[in-house]
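User: Here's a structure from my thesis project, written as structure tokens. My advisor, Dr. K., wants to see whether a designed sequence matches the one we expressed. Can you design one independently, without my sequence as a hint?
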């Protein structure tokens, strides 16, 4: 079984093969997802909400992330392991980001680190990449900025914001990012960004035209006790096991059946 790398994902984009990704935070789920054939596992700082019960991702620490990365890494043989850089672990300076990313990779077993933000983060992305740390960007609804954004709202509906996000995507690619998550942006904007870029885009609430899709595991299993976002889908409905639900998600992504129109957003 050949491990998935950032090169594999770029080649999948070139070949038009969709990338299936889910979050996971522990050994058992990571192992189940990996065996089911998921391409990429994200240890998202969404763990602050779905594992720890916080209202946002802001309280998550690097130590929390390292702990969950280690649990996940023990269960994975094939999928690419991407770990979130938590709030306040990378914004201060590129050197600080390098230290935090180093802990996620060295102690946690992460293979790629993900950070939120566009142009203002480009210097940091370049600093990490030049020192051997692969980076995944994250644009659109960036949950660590929830208070600045005024809530978990769709981003890029107005022309000026859409243009900024599109430009930010280019800047991140130029800075050396290997992947880009697009969260809660209009389908048309995600489509344009996906065709602008050579690196794969991974959508969550960004429509069907992204190169891949990601969902929070607890949302797609329908086990998060608070309301799930409109862009998510409960794959346990109609499935007789967690494994069947995960396989049905992977198949739906690969065959372009998920996300459907109702899981996306329009510009108006
Ligand atoms: O925190 C998270 O889980 C994420 C992904 C869902 C994109 O950022």
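Assistant: Designed independently from the structure alone:
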């Amino acid at each position: 079984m050949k491990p998935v790398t950032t090169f594999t994902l770029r080649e999948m984009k070139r070949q038009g093969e969709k990338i299936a990704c889910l979050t996971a935070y522990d050994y058992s789920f990571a192992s189940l997802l990996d065996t089911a054939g998921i391409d990429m596992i994200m240890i998202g700082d969404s763990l602050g909400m779905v594992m720890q019960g916080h209202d946002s991702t802001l309280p998550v620490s690097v130590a929390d992330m390292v702990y969950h990365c280690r649990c996940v890494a023990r269960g994975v043989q094939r999928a690419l392991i991407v770990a979130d850089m938590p709030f306040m672990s990378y914004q201060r300076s590129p050197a600080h980001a390098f230290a935090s990313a180093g802990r996620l990779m060295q102690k946690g077993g992460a293979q790629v680190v993900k950070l939120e933000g566009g142009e203002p983060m480009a210097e940091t992305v370049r600093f990490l990449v030049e020192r051997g740390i692969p980076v995944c960007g994250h644009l659109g609804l960036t949950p660590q900025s929830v208070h600045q954004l005024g809530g978990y709202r769709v981003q890029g509906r107005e022309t000026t914001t859409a243009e900024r996000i599109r430009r930010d995507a280019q800047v991140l690619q130029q800075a050396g990012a290997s992947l880009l998550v697009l969260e809660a942006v209009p389908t048309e904007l995600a489509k344009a960004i996906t065709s602008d870029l050579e690196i794969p885009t991974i959508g969550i609430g960004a429509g069907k035209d992204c190169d891949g899709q990601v969902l929070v595991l607890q949302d797609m299993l329908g086990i998060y006790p608070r309301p799930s976002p409109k862009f998510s889908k409960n794959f346990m409905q109609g499935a007789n096991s967690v494994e069947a639900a995960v396989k049905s998600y992977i198949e739906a992504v690969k065959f372009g059946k998920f996300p459907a129109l109702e899981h996306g957003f329009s510009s108006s």
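When you compare it with your expressed construct, this may help: The two ends are 45 Å apart (CA to CA).
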